[in-house]
Amino acid sequence: MKRSSRISVSSRPALLGAVIMLALTSASVAAADDGRGPLGVTVVTGVSRQSMRVGALFGTENADDLAGHHFCTASVVHSPQGNLIATAAHCVGGTEGDRVFVPGYRDGKAPYGVWKVTKRFMPDAWASGEDEDSDVAFAYVEELDGGGRRIEDLVGANRFAAGTVTGSTPVTLTGYPSSLDVPIRCTNKPGRQSPTQQRIDCPAFTSGTSGSPWVNGSGQLVGVLGGHERGGSTPDVSYSVAFGRPAAELYADATSG
Q1: Contact (CB, 8 A) for 138 and 252
Q2: Of 116, 156, 158, 183, which alpha carbon lies 20 to 30 A from 173's?
Q3: How confident is the model at residue 6 (pLDDT cuts 50, 70, 90)?
Q4: Structural contact between residues 115 and 145, judged by C-beta atoms closer than 8 angstroms
Q5: CB 159 within 8 A of CB 251
């Protein structure tokens, strides 16, 4: 529930301090075996090839005034068209064309442009009843400024992967808390919540991080923050739909156009 609600701007310094403190306590945490750093520690992420393809979602009314107005997270996922993003279904419901995606967003700036979200793809079970096992979505973004520039060509993309074994390798979450204008990340091994849901222990993934990609060491998208409790009712435990046949069929539908 709390993942897509807004946090007062006044809480930013407190949350940022908490994130930094978490980073400073990392010495007692075991190192991740994929080389990305300690497990279960949340830090502000730097600019990298991976972080470039993760961005924040905004309403179109804030496209010219970004600072402090993002409400969810999304990421670029590979497609033949080069224009596809992945997020949680509860982040993109509503009227088509009323959202924009800003990859690599930082401090009120859009270093790789502001991309209008257009056609969306959500499972029927989400559209009809907001079933938590269907809380995943894909969406097209328009070419930038009508100049034929595809988002994947500019920032790259992760590859969608269904059917991976939950917990077989660590995954890295990258997302945008509503109370910060920079992204955070955390690496840990997810666990099985249920046959259709997976969970991960990562501190400080608060409101705004819905839709955050779960990316393994091979650069594969194996989850998005959402699902159970719309991603989790506490900041330290997050959830994702387990990508099985329904997610694979949804991805195939989104990439068949």
Answers
A1: no
A2: 116
A3: very low
A4: no
A5: no
Using the CB atoms, write b or e for 49-80: b if 16+ within 10 Å.
Answer: ebbbbbbbbbeeebbeebebbbbbbbbbbbbe
CB atoms within 10 A of CB 195: 8
CA angle 78, 84, 88 (to 5 degrees): 105
230 contacts 135 by C-beta, under 8 angstroms: yes
CA distance 69 to 81: 29
And the tokens for 211? 């839709």
CA neighbours closer than 13 Å in the CB half-sphere of residue 54: 31
d(CA 179, CA 211): 16
pTM for the model: 0.87
Q: Give pLDDT, residue 38.
A: 86
110 Cβ contact partners less than 8 Å away, ≥ 6 residues apart:
66, 102, 104
Tens-place pLDDT, residues 226-252: 998 988 889 999 999 999 999 999 999
The radius of gyration of the chain's CA atoms, rounded to the nearest angstrom, is: 16
The 10s digit of each residue's pLDDT in 67-78 is 999 999 999 999
